Amino acid sequence: MLKLFRRNGWWTLQLQSTPRQPNSGSYFHSSTTARGCGTESQPTRVASPPPVQVGFTEFSGRGVFAKRMIWAGEMIHTAKPIVSHPSLSSLHAVCYSCLRKLRNQQCRAQSVSFCSQGCEEHSRIYFAVENKADWSAFHEYCSTHGLKYPLLVKRLACMIIANVASADILDLLQPATLSSTMIPLMEKELHLLRSTFADAQISDKQIAFLTGQWYISVIARIRINAFRIELAGESYEDLLSSAAALIQAEAAVGNAVYLLPSMYNHDCDPNTHIVWLQNADVKLKALRDIEAGEELRICYIDASMNRNARQTLLYEGFGFKCSCLRCMSDE
Fold this sequence. Notes:
Layout: E1 2-7, E2 10-15, E3 28-38, E4 43-48, E5 52-56, E6 62-66, E7 75-79, E8 83-86, H1 117-122, H2 124-130, H3 136-144, H4 149-161, H5 182-199, H6 212-225, E9 227-230, H7 236-247, E10 252-257, E11 265-266, E12 272-276, E13 282-286, E14 295-298, H8 307-318, H9 325-328
């Protein structure tokens, strides 16, 4: 597994050989292509840690920096989510584990489905916990109030109860600043979550971690670090389907939280592209040549919006006013 370590002011990525917990996986990995090697159809691939390191920026806190020259078009790294969950509107249309869109014959109107035996096995232990409970009231509450982040907390809580994740797994991520008006609403969410587990005969000892402090801390981190998953697909039909979904405002199939991708800062003219093709595994690709030591940045929002719209959305959604070169030049 790849983990972050502090060294000489940098957070570096190192491969660490540790026993894997059941159904756990490495949250990010890299497969780089050697330039000038192999063939066009089958390039030579060398598995290696991502060519990046996490350090501190002058104004934006932590950031991701290139350890070497990264070429335009290069796949920098991929990442698996720490936790993910389908949107309620996609609950029966995508894989309950990886969020891959299901074929028609795989969809079940009254239950969730998995796209493969591998995904079903990967989710087996925490899904056994989820399957004990009746989530209809919890889902109805989230649907009525337009909530998506409590679904991620629900999934994470089931993973913790199943011993495939630790209660502090998100602590490394930066939390959002929550307003005082949000806290009472979160207390209602927590009460509903705890009562759902209690009704399923999950013991008090198993959910001892599920305190108000823990819930608020996790929601604060999810709010600012969760990614909205919009699958691009790889075929012409997928692109047509994605375009239609965008028109209908139904492009997102779910949400997910990652480790390394959450360290990337924003720029309205980014040098790095973040994309989901067929499932929740994210891919980060260089949009241009990136010098060693240069910070890698992604765009958190739709970059085609005008400056005022971008500024408003970033401030309301992420709590900062963008001062990138594009915004400073009033583009």
